[in-house]
Amino acid sequence: xxxxxxxxxxxxxxxxxxxxxxxxxxxxxxxxxxxxxxxxxxxxxxxxxxxxxxxxxxxxxxxxxxxxxxxxxxxxxxxxxxxxxxxxxxxxxxxxxxxxxxxxxxxxxxxxxxxxxxxxxxxxxxxxxxxxxxxxxxxxxxxxxxxxxxxxxxxxxxxxxxxxxxxxxxxxxxxxxxxxxxxxxxxxxxxxxxxxxxxxxxxxxxxxxxxxxxxxxxxxxxxxxxxxxxxxxxxxxxxxxxxxxxxxxxxxxxxxxxxxxxxxxxxxxxxxxxxxxxxxxxxxxxxxxxxxxxxxxxxxxxxxxxxxxxxxxxxxxxxxxxxxxxxxxxxxxxxxxxxxxxxxxxxxxxxxxxxxxxxxxxxxxxxxxxxxxxxxxxxxxxxxxxxxxxxxxxxxxxxxxxxxxxxxxxxxxxxxxxxxxxxxxxxxxxxxxxxxxxxxxx
Length: 442
What we know:
Layout: E1 23-36, E2 40-46, E3 51-57, H1 65-70, E4 76-85, E5 94-105, H2 119-124, H3 126-129, H4 133-155, E6 159-160, E7 166-167, E8 179-182, E9 185-189, H5 194-202, E10 207-215, E11 228-237, H6 242-272, E12 285-287, H7 288-297, H8 311-325, E13 329-333, E14 356-361, E15 364-371, H9 376-385, H10 390-398, E16 407-413, H11 414-421
Parallel strand pairs: 3-5, 6-10, 12-13
Antiparallel strand pairs: 1-2, 1-4, 2-3, 4-5, 7-9, 8-9, 10-11, 11-16, 13-14, 14-15, 15-16
């Protein structure tokens, strides 16, 4: 039967034991392994920071004898004992000589998954899967990325917004929408906070950000798609063009990757076998038409009729940029209007090209952004050209009737950043709880 925790001061994080005074100490965590050698039992305890070996005498009756016999892999425990140096112990040359043991919760044995279990089953038991140190590390890195973004935003005078995720109409296009019952009518889950970011510009907020879920009813089963993901969204006013927006994204990514490299660079290399590279600014910027030609020169013809870059084209362009610029990132700019949203501003030189961009990192698109069209008449005209009826976006068009500054912004996929940063090939591995066409549990 589980016992109360031993009377002891605040538990010590296991990673902090190396600097903790030798002597009495308390730690909490999950039982990772048990090695019973009759006279002595070795138990590895892991918390979110590290693991430590606990050694227990099993020859004599002790206050912990019965609880020790009940231990299973995964059991949550609090242990108190004497912290000592032991050079032969691989886990930091330390061990705890057990004096008190309290079981918080006994794990059913065996656990439903192990390190060799396939991904789908591991996702079924995600809460157990996340106990693996490499998985815990992913979300420590995610936390630092978001923190670094926020530090830069706050330094540059941004305001955080929380836009609604239940909408009366589409925020991007008519496709990929999740429709839901809403009292006597219906509504949609937001594909993007796009319209509401622009509303903040009309409200005079000037610089806003949001980190929040977005929803796409995309039936794709690829390793890079999901139906719900976390989007990092930014919008800024008084821009002179989309290059101002790209400059901001560069500052964000350099700041975030610098922070990650400084705090986790070594452990990322040891765990995932990749080096964190802080990119030089400015990032290469290639016009869409030139990108299409570069890809063609490398022996690939883009199959899409509208000329939009598909995944293979993105990979080949990234190879070119790495070879010619020595850079992992590339902005693709000046897209034709056929592959851009109606609210992307167009050049006034008669070319019809948009002041929009995508950012590709190591061959995968992570961002779509643009300078937005802020003039009411132009927006209305471009919407009509795309076949979007006035009634569908009337509330959105109202944002631009009463004065709105020139502005632009972008959306950045958080899980794609993690995936590329850590060299992980599947977005499911870097999502806390993945949602896809066939997965809505747990």
